[in-house]
Design brief:
The complex is a heterotrimer of chains A (290), B (262) and C (314).
Chain A: H1 2-32, H2 39-55, H3 60-83, H4 91-112, E1 129-131, E2 134-136, H5 138-160, H6 162-172, H7 174-179, H8 184-210, H9 217-231, H10 236-257, H11 262-276
Antiparallel strand pairs in A: 1-2
Helix pairs in contact in A: 1-5, 1-6, 1-8, 1-9, 1-10, 2-3, 2-4, 2-8, 2-9, 3-8, 5-6, 5-8, 6-8, 9-10, 9-11, 10-11
Chain B: E1 2-13, E2 16-27, E3 31-35, H1 42-49, E4 57-62, E5 65-66, H2 72-78, E6 80-82, H3 95-101, H4 111-116, H5 119-139, H6 154-166, E7 172-176, H7 184-199, E8 203-207, H8 211-217, E9 220-225, E10 228-233, H9 235-240, H10 242-261
Parallel strand pairs in B: 3-8, 3-9, 6-7, 7-8
Antiparallel strand pairs in B: 1-2, 1-4, 4-5, 9-10
Chain C: H1 2-21, H2 29-54, H3 63-80, H4 84-106, H5 111-131, H6 133-136, E1 142-143, E2 147-149, E3 152-154, H7 157-179, H8 182-192, H9 194-199, H10 204-230, E4 232-233, H11 240-253, H12 258-274, H13 282-296, H14 301-309
Antiparallel strand pairs in C: 1-4, 2-3
Helix pairs in contact in C: 1-7, 2-7, 2-8, 2-10, 2-11, 2-12, 3-4, 3-5, 3-10, 4-10, 8-10, 11-12
Classes of the chains: A mainly alpha (290), B alpha/beta (262), C mainly alpha (314).
């Protein structure tokens, strides 16, 4: 039982990060139909920029906020410099552009920072909290709480602000939104910046637990993508659910089956899901028109 | 001889009954048209007949054989070809290659001889290309055969789709709004083309909005409304049918359709 | 037809000419080595182009087959005493069988879904190669026995230059023949409209599967060549970034064009060699090239150039 609970804790912690990565995917996908493979680099930037600023004696909260801004700016630049000029490309061409962008960002990070692994101090100490025979790190609570806050914040933003509603309208029908006077290009830019910020927060929250380095983003992007698809592309709630499920599957798979194949579990899950429910858990079927 | 029979065909999407309980029979050598207002289920019915949709109920018989729910490529092998309302051209290929694709089933499709480029493969390519050119000439597209398909004007693309369908040497050809976007001259030429296809022994089913065109050319018509059969019969019979006039043709349509008879 | 035929022979003729003439300008054996790497990568790229360029189906996990081919010639001779040439064949067969098994299901998916499924598949192969250390030597890799023909050991960049060059010419010829055949037309047709292709009698699922299998065999053979040439192999050969490299070769050179795939391989393999002095900047340059080509030369280098130089007739 204690073991079971332990796996739940670690699964939910990692799953929250996947959920945030998947949420970043979803925000961009909904606004622009682009699958952004550079989403993992936002997470990496969040961690690495905070680490670098901390090393320059900037206090942690300030460093964190600055890192979020940097990632948001990178997201904005990604849209303005790489996605917008390629308007009209096919989905797969856009995927390849974002992959190129992720390689580029990774390359820059390698030059600007270094190739070492880095750690951030835990926000409120490293003393594990005991609970029903299992332990949980205080940082895990930060991750869970932070992820929850972002999910709720994004929900409130999209339901209760004018900009959020404009974004929803853009997602539903870009042309109609433009005809209604919405600056859809600005909305899409905003979605890239938002995805960058969400990714960076995930990176800052998780770095005290998992370490980070210039190429920490790749695997996270792949797993976040898998999580997003698991929940059904373009569904914020699905992204969160998919991320948490993936985290739990990994934790239990690593605990009970094989820790060597932990990183493969996401892909086994996604292959099984795609082949049995091609639209994801929360997706719905749409008939093709001829 | 009856070539195609639909028995109580029905299909629904979600809760919407797109086609419900539709039955009809198409005689070989006829031009059989399906008419009805937008959303009547005409194209949906075509999609069922050509295997794109599987009907939820009912049967489709081709020359007595039950072909219900067969996938499109197998129906093509059984002799059903079709064109599309919104064009489905292979834009990455030349005009003649588009038609050559239609010869697929008549060709040796083994991988290894194709990749080795054996003389037999070259011979087959020549024969297919020759046949495709003949068909293009037949539909009046002989000249631009080696141009990219995308360089053709709209009306020519509609003919190209017909040529590609004819390349299958089908028994039954389904034409989905072939006259859409055509001017009166082009429509008249199209009528000639359709008639000459029938003379070659191909049975034709037509979905069309141009009432004058359908009324002139069809041996029999099926009128759909809201997914159900409203009426079926010859053009002359339908023109007298008060239900059809009221529900579909309207006053304007009736006026337009009448001179077509006289 | 003459136009198509001649295009086929021009591509092949230019390729053979380049392979034959390049050594004339090589100042050192290092250049043979780089060129051999280009030819080997180009074999995989030409194969992937059959799947991506002809049939329009993306694979973000194709390096997995590279890995299977590479480890086939590493494990077969070392563990089972099998002949290395036989192992190239066995690797190709294994890749084909796996492609058949996996492709039957995942090729039903489209667009993003196919992208993530192939990505996952490639990732799992790389993971198995890294984890099954008893067989593969684990993350540190394993040595590959040298091959010999009639007692003559095939070693050295010059030998491999000619060997891989000849194999590339053969692979390109096969791909070009396929393009202008019944099956090739079927693949290009389903690329544009699966529904119209199916109604023309094309068994779309089967054709996609064939393209996947053929591309897998090309990659597997290239992987075997790479391992035999290097004399060593690590799971890195099957990594996600390798898959992206392959996709980039096809796309940068010009999707659908075998000549483009070869050119793309040339660019992406030689680039890091030029940048060895600035090894740190390699990823930056790679990322930039991919983005710039996709944004400004959307159809890739070769088709764009063809369009520029072709006489316009309309």
């Amino acid at each position: 039982m204690a073991e079971f609970l332990q796996f739940c804790f670690s699964g939910l912690t990692v799953g929250s990060v996947y959920a945030l990565v998947a949420l970043g995917f979803t925000v961009i996908y909904n606004a622009s139909n682009v699958v952004n493979f550079a989403q993992g680099e936002f997470v990496m930037l969040g961690g690495m920029v905070t680490v670098a600023l901390l090393a320059a004696s900037v206090p942690l909260p300030v460093a964190g906020v600055a890192a979020v801004f940097v990632a948001a700016l990178v997201g904005l630049a990604l849209h303005r410099l790489a996605i917008e000029p390629a308007r009209g490309s096919s989905p797969v061409e856009l995927i390849i552009i974002t992959i190129g962008a992720s390689i580029f960002i990774r390359g820059v990070a390698q030059v600007v920072f270094d190739k070492q692994f880095h750690k951030l101090p835990a926000f409120s100490g490293d003393a594990p909290i005991h609970m029903l025979g299992a332990t949980i790190l205080p940082q895990s609570l930060w991750v869970l709480g932070g992820a929850g806050a972002i999910v709720i914040g994004l929900h409130l933003f999209s339901e209760h602000t004018l900009v959020g509603k404009a974004a929803a309208a853009t997602a539903a029908n870009r042309l109609a939104a433009r005809l209604a006077g919405i600056d859809t290009t600005a909305i899409v830019s905003l979605s890239f910046a938002l995805a960058g910020a969400v990714g960076a927060v995930a990176g800052i929250l998780i770095t005290p637990i998992t370490l980070t380095s210039y190429n920490a983003g790749t695997l996270l992007a792949l797993k976040g993508f898998a999580a997003g698809m698991l929940g059904g592309m373009g569904k914020p709630l699905g992204a969160v659910l998919g991320g948490l499920l993936l985290g739990l599957a990994e934790a239990f798979g690593a605990g009970y089956v094989s820790s060597a194949y932990k990183d493969g579990i996401a892909f086994i899950v996604i292959l099984v899901v795609l082949l049995s429910l091609p639209q994801g858990l929360l997706g719905k079927h749409s008939a093709e028109r001829v | 001889m009856t070539l195609l029979v639909a028995e109580n065909v029905g299909i629904r999407f979600g809760g919407v009954r797109a086609v419900e309980n539709v039955s009809f029979a198409v005689q070989a050598g006829h031009i059989f048209s399906i008419i009805g207002p937008n959303g009547a289920g005409k194209t949906t019915l075509f999609n069922v007949l050509s295997g794109i949709y599987r009907p939820d109920s009912g049967r489709v018989l081709l020359a007595g054989e039950d072909v219900t729910g067969m996938p499109p490529h197998r129906l093509a092998a059984k002799g059903i070809a079709r064109t599309f309302q919104n064009l489905q051209i292979f834009y990455g290929m030349t005009v003649v290659e588009n038609v050559m694709v239609g010869r697929h089933l008549r060709e040796d499709r083994r991988i290894v001889p194709s990749m080795l480029g054996l003389p037999s493969a070259a011979r087959q390519n020549r024969a297919t290309r020759q046949k495709a050119r003949e068909i293009l000439a037949f539909v009046g597209l002989g000249d631009p055969a080696d141009e990219p398909a995308g360089s053709l004007p709209y009306g020519a693309l509609r003919r190209l789709e017909i040529a590609r369908a004819l390349a299958l040497e089908p028994r039954l050809l389904l034409l989905d709004e072939p006259a859409a976007g055509c001017n009166p001259v082009e429509t008249a030429e199209l009528g000639e083309l359709v008639r000459s296809i029938v003379r070659q022994g191909v049975t034709i089913m037509l979905v069309e909005h141009d009432m004058r065109f359908v009324m002139q050319i069809s041996d029999r018509l099926l009128v759909l409304d809201g997914g159900r059969t409203l009426a079926e019969g010859s053009a002359a019979a339908l023109r007298q049918n008060p239900e059809v006039i009221a529900a579909y043709l309207g006053r304007h349509g009736a006026r337009e359709a009448n001179p077509a008879l006289s | 037809m003459r136009a198509l035929l001649s295009a086929r022979w021009v591509t092949l003729g230019v390729l053979c000419l380049v392979i034959a003439a390049l050594p004339l300008v090589f100042p050192s054996s290092y250049y043979y080595r780089v060129a051999a790497l280009v030819w080997i990568s180009a074999i995989a790229a030409v194969g992937l182009n059959i799947l991506m360029g002809y049939a329009g189906q993306v694979s973000l996990g194709h390096a997995g087959f590279l890995g299977i081919g590479a480890y086939a010639v590493a494990i077969g001779p070392a563990r089972f005493g099998l002949n290395s040439w036989l192992c190239i064949l066995l690797g190709a067969l294994l890749s084909a069988a796996l492609a058949w098994l996996v492709g039957r299901t995942i090729l039903r998916l489209r667009g993003h879904y196919l992208a993530i499924a192939t990505l996952g598949f490639g990732f799992l192969i790389a993971l198995v190669l890294a984890n099954e250390a008893r067989w593969t030597g684990g993350p540190d890799g394993t040595p590959v026995a040298r091959v010999s023909v009639a007692g003559f050991r095939l070693a050295g960049p010059v030998t491999w230059y000619w060997l891989s060059g000849a194999l590339l010419a053969l692979g390109t010829a096969l791909a070009l023949n396929l393009e202008d055949s019944s099956v090739g037309r079927a693949l290009r047709a389903l690329h544009d409209s699966e529904i119209a292709a199916a109604l023309a009698g094309i068994d779309v699922a089967r054709c996609k599967l064939w393209a996947f299998i053929i591309a897998a065999v090309y990659a597997s053979v290239a992987g075997s060549m790479l391992a035999l040439f290097d004399g060593f192999v690590t799971p890195d050969v099957a990594s996600f970034l390798r898959s992206i490299d392959l996709v980039a070769m096809v796309v940068v050179g010009g999707i659908g064009s075998s000549a483009g795939s070869i050119l793309g391989a040339g660019l992406l393999v030689t680039l890091p060699q030029f940048l060895t002095v600035f090894a740190e900047y390699e990823q930056i340059a790679l990322g930039l090239i991919i983005m710039l080509v996709m944004i400004f030369l959307r159809r890739g280098i070769v088709p764009t150039a063809q369009q520029l130089f072709a006489p316009r007739r309309r």
